Structure formats: C-alpha cells, structure tokens
Amino acid sequence: MSQGLATRLQPCGPVRDAEAAARLHERLAEAAEAEGWRATLDAAWGALLPVFAASPYLAGLARRWPDRLRRTLDSDPEARLAEILAAMEALTGAPDEAKAPLRHLKAELHLLTALCDLGGVWDLDQVTGALSRFADAAARAALRILADDWRRRGRLISAPDDPRGPVPGLFVLAMGKGGAFELNYSSDIDLSLFYEPEVLEAALSEGVEMQGFVNRLAQGLTALLSERTADGYVFRVDLRLRPDPSSTPPAVAAPMALAYYESVGQNWERAAFIKARVCAGDAAEGAGFLKALVPYIWRRSLDYQAVLDIQSIKKQIHVHKTGEGLEAAGANLKLGRGGIREIEFYVQTQQLILGGRNRALRSPRTLEALDALTRAGHVSPEARDELRAAYVELRALEHRAQMLADEQTHLLPVDPERRADVAALAGQGDLAAFDAGIERLLVRVNARYGELFEGGEDLSSPYGSLVFTGVENDPGTLETLARMGFSEPASVSDTIRSWHHGRIQATRTARGRELFTRLAPQLLTAVAKTGAPDAAFRRFAVFFAGLSAGVQVQALFLNQPKLFELVVEVMAFAPRLARMLGRRPQALDGVLDARFLTDLDTDSGVVAQLLAEAAAASDFEEAMNVVRRQHREQVFRIGMHTITGRAGPEEAGRANTDLADACMRALAPAALKEAERLGGALDGAAAVVALGKAGSREMSAGSDLDLMTVYAAPPEAASAGRGWSAETFYGRFTQRFIAALSAHTAEGGLYEVDMRLRPTGSKGPVSVRLETLRAYYAEEADTWEFMALTRARVVWASDEAFGAEVTAALEEALRRPRDAAQTAGEVRAMRDLMERERAAKGFWDLKLSAGAQVDAEFVGQYRQLMAGAAGRPLTVSTLEALKDDPVLADSWRMHQQLSQLTACAFEDKNDPDEEPPGFQQRLAAAVGAPDFDTLKAQLIHLRLRARRAFDSVLPPISDGN
C-alpha cells in the first residue's frame, strides 16, 4: 500500500521566516481542525515549514486553498499526478468556462511538484516529467475545447471523436524543454502549430478561409493558456519556434514549413528539432512531418564548412580562461557563463555533427544524449559525470529561484535576502558558502564548455558573447553590444538575426549564412573599434542588404580582415563612400581586383583598360555605362586610399584628376562619333580644355569639371550629312560630351560640368572657335579670367597637332605684358569682393576662410600671371606656383589634405566638431597633429600667418586707391 505524501516529505533546509510560517500554520491548523486532517498537517509540518518560510508563492497556494494542500498531502504523489492529468483530459465546455478549472489544476500541479521536489520525494527527471506531461495535457485540452467551440459555430464539420484529432490535419509540436520532457518549474511552453492543407480543408465548412481559421485557433489556444485571470495562468505560450516567426502566421502550412527548413533553415533550428515531438492534434500528420524533417535534422554527410557552422553555435559564447566575473549574485543559471545553455550546446552541437551517422546519439533528452556521446567515445566519462552533476544542480537551483514567486526567471537574486531564500530551498543556510559553491559550479561548466571544439576561429568577441541563435535576443549578447557602444543593442541583434534567417540576398544561400556566421563577430568588433558603432553599423546594413550575392564579398572580407576593417572604417567615417556602396554595392567589385591596394601614383593599367573598353563599346550609351562602371570602382578605391591615409593630398588630387582625364579621353571620342552619326562628318578638329581643380590636377571626391571645348574648321565647312555649320557641329559635340559626363544612366553619373569659364561665359556659343579664343584673351578678358587660365590644360584633342596649337594659344594669352602693381591690386580687389559676397561659412570652411585655400590660390595665380609676363616657366600646380611663398604653400597643403578627407567622407558641407572622435582623430593624424584640439590650434595659427603672407604679396587696397 502506497504512503501519502505527508509521511515521505523531508525538510529541504533551514527556516528563513519563522514568524510568517507560524502565521500560515495557525490558519492551516484552523482549517485542518475543521476538516479533520490536523494529524496529516502535523506530520508534514516539519518539512513544510522551511518551504513556506522561503517561498511566498507556495505559501500563498496553501493559504488560499487548504483543501488542495490536504489532497496533496494525503495522496500518493504518483496517484495524485494521475488524477490531475485525468481531470485535465476530461475538461469540456466553452473556452471561457474552462479558464478557471485549467488554472486550478495548474495550481494543484505546482503545489504537488514543488513539495515532491523540495521534500526529496521526486528526482529531477520525475519533476520535469510531471510538468511536461501536464503541459501536454493542457495543450490537448485547449485544442479540444476550442475545436468544440468552432464545431458549435458550424465552422468545423469533423466529428468530435475523429481519430485524427480535434482538428484533422492540424498538429501541435512541443519544442524545447517541453519536447524533451524537461520543462522547468515556471517555464513557458514552446509550441509550434502546423497543418496539412488538404486534410484540414475537408474538415472545414464551405467558405471558411483556412489560414484565417488556423490563425484564430492558434491565437485562441495562446489566450486560453496564457491569459492571467484572478486564478492565475496555465502556461505562457511561445509560438516563435515556427519558421521565421516575424514574417509567418502563428500556424504554418506543413509544405511551406518543409520548404523553409530545406532552403534557409539554420543549425540552431536543426538543434531545436532534436527535441520536437507531437503533443496534441493530428498525431499521424505530425509524425509524417517530423519524418520528412529527419534528413534536414540528421545529415549523414557534412562538409567542412557545415561542421564549422554547427561549431559556431558553441563558439559564439565567450569562454573565459578564469572564473573572473562569475558571481552568484545575479547569475543567469540558464544563459550565463557556466549555465544550463552551455551544457545543452555542448551536447546538441555534437549531436548535430555525429547524429546523422549514429542513431544512438539522437536522444532529445540532454542527459541521455550525454550518456550516449560517452558510450560512443566522444565525451570522456569524467566530463560526462561532471556535466551531469552540474546540470542536475543548475536545474534544481533554477526551479528554486522560480518557486519564490512563480516567475519565469533564470537569475539568482541580486538581493542577498532573496538569494538566501533560494539557498534555504536548496538546503544551504550559509549564504557565503552557497555563493562560493555556485561560483565554483559555474567555473567548472564554463571550463568544460571551453574544451569543446578547442582551437580554430573564435566567434565571440573580446567584448563578450555574441549569440544570435533562437527566436529572442540573448541577454548576454545585448550586454556585449551595449559594451561595444551601440545605443540600441536590441535593434542591432534583431538585424543580425534577420540576416541569419536569410532575409537578404547575401545570406539567402546556406553558404552565405555559413560565411556570415563567421563574419558577424568580426563585423561587430570592427564596428565597435571605430568609436562610431551606430553610424557604421547602419551604413553597413544598407550596403550589405543591397548585395545581389554575398558569398564572394563575405569570403573576401574573411580572407582579408585588414581590408574588411578599412571598409568598416569607411562606414563609420565616410558617409559619402558608405552611401556609394549602399546605392551601388558593385563599387566593391574593384576590391576583388589585385590592383585595389596599388599606390595611386603607380600605373595600374586601369586607365588603359577604361579607354580600351570604351573604344570597344558598340554605341554611345554603352560607352557611357562602361566608363561609369570603371569610374565607380576607382572613385571608391581612391576614397579608401585617401580616408585611410594611404594617399596624401597631392597623390589623391592627381589620382582623382587622372580618373577624370581618363573619363574625358574615353567619352570625348564617343561624343564626337555620336555627333558624326547624327549630323555627318566635318573637316575640323576639337579639343577639351580643363580649368579649375581639374586643370591644376588637384581634384577631390565630388569635384565639378570646369571645362571648355575649342575647335577649328574651314570658314565654310559643313557636316557631310545634315549640312551643319562648324559652330553647330561642335556645339552638338559639346552637348553630347557634357551629357556623357553628367547624365545619370542605369550605372549612375560621373561629374557635374561647368562651362562658364569659357570666353563669353554662358551667353556665348557652347564651343569656342580657336580664333575667337585668341581674340578674346587678347582684347576683352578681365584679370580674373586670366587667373582662371593659369590652371588651363588640354585634356583631349581629336588631332594631336591641334591639341598642341590650343596649348600654345593658352600660353600665349598668359604671356602678355602686365603691370605687377596693377595686377596685384586687381587680384586683391577680387578677393575682397569675394569675402564680402561669399563669406566663409564657419571655422571649417577650408576654402574661403582667411588664410585658407583661396588666399593661397590667388597668390599662386598672381605669381603665374607675373611669371608669364616675365617669360618664366609656367605651371598649373598650386604648390609649384607657391614655391617662393612657403607659408602659403604650407597652408594650402594642410587645407587640401583636410579637404580631400572631408570630400571623401561627406557629400555636403560638414562640421568636424560634430563628428565622432574617431573621425576627428583621423583628421588630426592626416596633418601630423597629435589630437583634434591641437589640429584646430594649428589651423588658427597657420591661417593667421598665411593671411599675413597673403597681405604681403597682395597688399590691402587703401581708401581712394
């Protein structure tokens, strides 16, 4: 004859709050006296006292329902459990009527399992088994009650006793700990609802929309079990272990689910299905579904990359070499270092790798699988014994932490008083000794965990663990992301997990996801190192989501980590380049070219390649697109060299200008050919002249092209086809040439073009006859136009001899005599007018600030005008023109370096004072300053000296002069 529970209970530990327990005893004794069970209460009280003294939740259950305590104490625990489960299976009625009895039965189960656990009557396996069996019964009861309700409404037409279940075709899978019969005390239950459309459709009334029906059923099941009423709740239901839960309905069609798992299912989802089983609904359809998933879960052959991807589940958790930072107070017994998850991952990762070929390793239960791995020789008996003991102890502690208030917590309380309650339920009266034991336990587990898959690539971060498995954000990962400097760690984690789900092209393939698993920690660590993680990650996300395919790019980043860090720095400090990548991820194609990191001054063959490809284009539009593709890659390459300091200001200026020259040399012949196609050939010659920064070979990212075109033709020349005059023909050529440079095609744009520096400006013909150019500069041009001419050079000519003739005409214009004092006065007057009408827009106006670039360039152009008049050599280079003005040269060089950097980084004028410290330091380092404040101080000092030098060469104009 079996004994009642009252005589089998043992005290769990010391009494924490004797006064509260005494008050409860007084109330229970009163009820026991009245109902005739005082002897039972007295027999059990010695074991009940420490329980009710430490757990307000369990004390509350006893106080509220003394009769349930009596039934629990009087009954054999196994028999009482069978009664509770039978009562659950017998529940009927409308959903609202079933809420109270469901919750009452859960309270009875909780009281029974807690007393059997704490009183030493049941071991861990019996406790978790009872909880899991009750969860199954609750899911079946809820599904049955809801189905009966839909049947009464006429929506469901299958028979109530249909052998296929309450809703034929629909089945419920228990996942996670519930699936393995390992539920913890206050666990939620992971359920996944699937249905076979053909079977379900036949069970529904005509006109009932199937997906809407199962969605409402899933929502009703969740509400029936999870909703908190005055009687509490049954279970919190989590439906998120279904395929891609953020974008799928709560109940998923089985064929769609199978297609998902076969195409984009992740390894952590394979691990989740190790524990999956049918707990309610159509058992036959559920069994068929799980059988179809066997090849997905248990793969007989795994390539090296797939094995690495499985190992990554473990390697994302940061393993410490010591127990530093492991404290009992606030320890996360499930997800923290040395916690339950590490033991589960230790087992499941090995199951995924080895279970495809060895069925004996496929147990859904953690400790059974650990035993199987030991028998197969994959885990040592010593490791097995240590992990088994730790698992049992950690699960017991988890239960006791939850028993305090029926909270689904995995944390040991930080508050010493509450932690002492947990210790008491665990049999420990000395809190310091309890804490020390917990810390030793966590260290042991973490050390064993670190032994698994030792060596190879680390997929955590120096900042901490980076775990992106599962359907919710990992607390430790959120802490790591916060340490990295992200302002919204949850948003970053959500984004990373969505990429793991294959929601972008780069991770849509299994290989892409495997690579991303390895890339993600490197990405986040590199982003954190920039000091501007939010901006860097946001811009990288735009770029990464825009990739049409990600395998090649991710492989490149993994094989060249330094290059990857450079790209991430661009994302942090150069929104211009980042936007370029975001809009045109193809710009990164150039990185795959071995010439990408070649010094900018070295002839890499890119120009020759661009010219050849444009010349081979079949028509004008194709030539435009060929040039744009090459231009995009080279702009990114030059920008990378500039922003990272590989190229100085002069080198970057030359590289940007060489690229512009190449584009013009490629597109001018194409434009001329297009003009001939439209109007017929014409006997003449044309040249393209660059002015401004393009002329002086000092362009930066985003510089406009200041151009003019010059032509020569016989006076009566006309095109062969349309009879166009030379002015019309070369005007059309120039218009086509401008369009080739500035129009936006499917491949993007190139440059903004400004033709206003030509003789007669915007009012005259768009292309200038050479004779007109000579006459204009001989008779009409103002001093500012000659200043502009000091930076003029021929970029392209249809005829080499004509190009030389234009060059000679430009030099001739600069060689005319001029008075030094008068010229200086006119140049100074022009600068004064500019200061009045185009004043500097703040400290960081590197062009117009007094003592900055314009001051230096005006002096350089004045020097060239005087050199031309004196017959001395001419140059288009600002620095060469300033060879006798070292202070102005220094100022121009520093401002040009800063301009190159800011032009690469920003499309609009920016204020470096508002930029991240990392970018400020990059600016300072570019000019040799130790820090940003020193840079600003140096700029102020240099500008003052440069303005004094400017005044010395171009004295201020006094009143009346």
Which terms would index this structure?
961 residues, mainly alpha, 5-stranded mixed β-sheet
Q: Please state the average pLDDT score.
A: 91
Task: Give the N-to-C terminal Cα separation.
Answer: 125 Å
What is the rounded Rg? 40 Å
Helix content: 55-70%
What is the 3D shape?
elongated
Relative strand content:
under 5%
Total E-strand runs: 10
User: What is the helix tally?
Assistant: 40
Q: What are the low-pLDDT stretches, counting only 5+ consecutive residues below 50?
A: none
Classify the secondary structure makeup into a structural class. Answer: mainly alpha
The major β-sheet equals: 5 strands, mixed
Description:
- The chain has 961 residues and is mainly alpha-helical.
- It is 59% helix and 5% strand.
- Strands 1, 2, 3, 4 and 5 form a five-stranded mixed sheet that branches. Strands 6, 7, 8, 9 and 10 form a five-stranded mixed sheet that branches.
- The radius of gyration is 40 Å and the shape is elongated.
Overview in brief:
The chain is mainly alpha-helical. The chain is built from 40 helices and 10 strands. It is elongated, with a radius of gyration of 40 Å.
SSE inventory with pairings:
Layout: H1 18-35, H2 38-54, H3 56-64, H4 66-74, H5 77-89, H6 95-118, H7 124-152, E1 170-175, H8 176-179, E2 189-195, H9 197-203, H10 210-226, E3 237-238, E4 251-253, H11 254-264, H12 267-274, E5 277-281, H13 283-297, H14 304-315, H15 340-354, H16 366-375, H17 381-403, H18 416-425, H19 431-451, H20 475-484, H21 489-500, H22 510-529, H23 533-546, H24 551-559, H25 561-573, H26 575-583, H27 606-615, H28 620-643, H29 649-679, E6 685-691, H30 692-695, E7 705-712, H31 726-742, E8 753-754, E9 767-769, H32 770-779, H33 783-789, E10 793-797, H34 800-814, H35 820-837, H36 853-870, H37 878-881, H38 886-905, H39 917-926, H40 932-953
Parallel strand pairs: 2-3, 2-4, 7-8, 7-9
Antiparallel strand pairs: 1-2, 1-5, 6-7, 6-10
Helix pairs in contact: 1-2, 2-3, 2-18, 3-4, 5-6, 5-7, 6-7, 7-10, 11-13, 12-15, 14-15, 14-22, 15-16, 16-17, 17-19, 20-21, 22-23, 22-24, 22-25, 23-25, 23-26, 24-25, 27-28, 27-29, 28-29, 28-38, 29-31, 29-38, 32-34, 35-36, 36-38, 38-40, 39-40
